[in-house]
Amino acid sequence: MPKPKKSFGRRKICRFCADKVPAADIDYKDVQRLRHYMTERGKIIPRRISGNCARHQRAICAAVKRARMIALVPFTAD
User: Fold this and answer.
1) In the predicted structure, residue 5 carries a pLDDT above the cut 90
2) What ranges do the domains of the chain cover?
3) Whole-angstrom Cα distance, residue 56 to residue 70?
4) What is the average per-residue pLDDT within 59-77?
5) SS percent in the chain: helix, strand, coil, step 5
6) Per-residue pLDDT at 4
7) Backbone phi, then psi, for 39, in 5-degree steps?
8) How far apart are CA 63 and CA 57, in angstroms?
9) Where does residue 34 rank: exposed (0-12), middle (13-18), buried (19+ CB within 10 A)?
10) Continuous segment of H or E residues that includes residue 69
């Protein structure tokens, strides 16, 4: 007999939407902010875990990729 599915808690809210930050203000030079949305291994944290909305998650991904290209953040951990 299959177990019933667990109910989920409250949905996470996007921090950027809560602070009314436009997606254009997410900058690749703001390394401290970008590191919050990356794992220790250098991977980008997915939207379902970080709680970002789609628009801000796309902006974060683009900023991380730009920061990687000019070596502000590493591609992978050592």
Assistant:
1) no
2) 15-69
3) 21
4) 93
5) 40, 5, 55
6) 79
7) -80, 175
8) 10
9) buried
10) helix 54-69
The Cα–Cα gap between 40 and 17 comes to 25
Q: Which two tokens stand for residue 69?
A: 């290209």
What is the phi/psi pair of residue 45, to 5°? -75, 130
**Which CATH superfamily does the domain covering 15-69 fall into?**
Ribosomal protein S18 (4.10.640.10)
The tens digit of pLDDT for each residue in 10-59 reads: 788 899 999 998 989 999 999 999 999 999 999 999 999 999 999 999 99
pLDDT at 70: 95
Give the H or E element holding residue 48: helix 47-50
Q: What is the CA radius of gyration of the chain?
A: 15
Query: What's the predicted TM-score (pTM) here?
Result: 0.82
